[in-house]
């Protein structure tokens, strides 16, 4: 399993609620969390085989940016 980290624009609990269905729908994600207290709003994902580009596109479709760090 890999741990991936992304700098995002997921700022608050309402934003987390908005991305939850998108992230939960990703088959290869075992678990994920967003640190909204971090200035970079770090999204941490534990995944076996995640298509990073697909994840970024999925988040962009609902109005969020994500950049792998």
What would you note in describing this structure?
InterPro entries: HMA_dom (IPR006121), HMA_dom_sf (IPR036163). GO terms for molecular function: metal ion binding. This is HMA domain-containing protein. With 69 residues, this protein is of the alpha+beta class. It has a single domain (2-68), classed as Alpha-Beta Plaits (2-Layer Sandwich), CATH 3.30.70.100. Helix content is 33%, strand content 33%. The protein has helices at residues 13-25, 52-61; strands at residues 2-8, 29-35, 42-47, 66-68.
Proportion in β-strands: 25-35%
Name given to the CATH architecture: 2-Layer Sandwich
CATH top level is: Alpha Beta
Helix tally equals 2
CATH topology group:
Alpha-Beta Plaits
Question: How many domains is the backbone divided into?
Answer: 1
What is the SS-derived class?
Answer: alpha+beta
How far apart the termini lie comes to: 17 Å
Low-confidence stretches: none
Average pLDDT, to the nearest integer? 93
Reading side by side through the largest sheet, how are the strands ordered?
2-3-1-4
The description of the largest β-sheet is: 4 strands, antiparallel
Helix proportion? 25-40%
Number of strands: 4
The gyration radius over C-alpha positions equals: 11 Å
Task: Label the overall shape.
Answer: globular
Provide the succession of SSEs: EHEEHE
Pfam families: HMA (PF00403)
Protein name: HMA domain-containing protein
Organism: Pedobacter chitinilyticus
GO molecular function: metal ion binding
């Amino acid at each position: 399993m890999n741990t991936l980290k992304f700098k995002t624009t997921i700022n608050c609990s309402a934003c987390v609620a908005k991305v939850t269905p998108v992230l939960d729908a990703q088959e290869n994600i075992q678990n994920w969390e967003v640190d909204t207290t971090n200035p970079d709003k770090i999204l941490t994902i534990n995944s076996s085989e995640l298509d990073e580009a697909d994840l970024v596109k999925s988040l962009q479709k609902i109005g969020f940016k994500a950049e792998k760090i």
